From TrEMBL:
PANTHER family documented for this protein: PROTEIN FAM185A, PTHR34094
Organism: Rhodosorus marinus
UniProt-recorded name of the protein: Adhesin domain-containing protein
Amino acid sequence: MIRSLQSSTRIRLGRSVFLRRLQLSSRTVPLSPGGSLRVKLREWKLKLLIQDHDLWDRATIECHGPENGGESEQIKPEEPILFADEKTNSVRLEQPTSQSRDGFTRSYLWKLRQPSEVEVVLKIPGKISLDLEGGGGMSLNDKFEGEEHKIAVTGGVASVGKLRGMRIVIQACEGQIVARQLLGSLIVNTRKTELDIKLLQGPVNTLFMDKSTLAIGAGYTERMEVFATQSSVSFDHLRGSTQVMSRGGAVKIGSCDGSLHVDSIDSIDVTLSTFDRVDLHSERDVRIGMPDSPDADLHCFSPSVTVDEAINQSVRTYCSHDEISYGKLEERNVPVLVARGGKSIRVEPAIWMSGFGLSRLDRNSPPTARTLRRDRTA
């Protein structure tokens, strides 16, 4: 586990210290300018690239063992590699570029007398780039800010707190990733993976999903493209331009502000707050939720089209058989919704203020995390 530690017991460097009753121990590890800190926790590999060179000497590594028993040896490597193994209950710091007098690379071992989970805490000040890969359990609860972050998961579970950067790359196979906040352009490539993102905010996002599950709480983006194969895709709230191409797997969107294009061979369930243009193409059922008083053109093409009476009184055009010429988009003064359902299309008033969504006072505000909230009175 990697997390922040508010209180710790520090042992001075430059001497070896053995503790009969170990409660907390820590190591302060200076990093060379422009250097990187590589960490291996269980089966995970973590590389942190320090970007603020004037802060590298404030980086610390803290290793914590059980309250009953243990011993520790303090060292000060120049370019450390830290290994923590929960199965063998050990933490090892290596200095690969340094050699002892007999020519062997020095390694330092911290062993626990009793089986216990090893906890390693990294404190890195300033901006860093995060490079994380592995196949075991990992939790990153801190906030990381840098130019680029990479996360690769194979058959494991990763929990990420807040990542901010120009570019965020996620690759996963038969894994599970839960992210609280991803702030930056996102690139995703997953297979047989569950990806759960509470908040996504970035200019351009591209996601490739294969036999996976995608769940995004709130997505604020200029452009988002999702390419899904036999995958389930769901959004609680979307703002911006979104395109979803699905070849198998349901598509569900709780509420949407902006333009939307969905092409799916499975069912589509969309609730609209306000919108510029929406195109829905499905070989199965389509359900559309619209505001109580929409000012829009609604065109539906399906053998079975059902429009709620409250919606039917407000829309400009409704057609279930004839093709319609839309004209140029820039000449239109009202939004357009086009739905082509292979089986049936159901259009009904939207209860889009429930769950993750925007109140009527917020829907014209700038897309920030503050506009995301739960309407508990709904």
